[in-house]
Amino acid sequence: MFDKILIANRGEIACRVIKTARKMGIKTVAVYSDADKNALHVEMADEAVHIGPPQANQSYIVIDKIMGAIKQSGAQAVHPGYGFLSENPKFAEALEAAGVAFIGPPKGAIEAMGDKITSKKIAQEAKVNTVPGYMGLIEDAEEAVKISNEIGYPVMIKASAGGGGKGMRIAWNDEEAREGFQSSKNEAASSFGDDRIFIEKFVTQPRHIEIQVLCDTHGNGIYLNERECSIQRRNQKVVEEAPSPFLDPETRKAMGEQSVALAKAVGYASAGTVEFIVDGDKNFYFLEMNTRLQVEHPVTELITGVDLVEQMIRVANGEPLSITQDDVQINGWAIENRLYAEDPYRGFLPSIGRLTRYRPPAEGELSEGIVRNDTGVYEGGEISMYYDPMIAKLCTWGKTRDAAIETMRNALDSFEVEGIGHNLPFVAAVMDHPKFMSGDMTTAFIAEEYPEGFEGVTLGEDELKRVAAAAAAMNRVAEIRRTRVTGRLGNHERRVGSDWVVSLQGVDYDVVIDADPDGSTVNFADGSSLRVEGRWTPGDTLAHMTLNGAPLVLKVDKVTHGFRLRTRGADMRVHVRSPRQAELARLMPEKLPPDTSRMLLCPMPGLIVKVNVAEGDEVQEGQALCTVEAMKMENILRAEKKGVVAKINAGPGDSLAVDDVIMEFE
Question: pTM for the whole thing?
Answer without folding.
Answer: 0.83
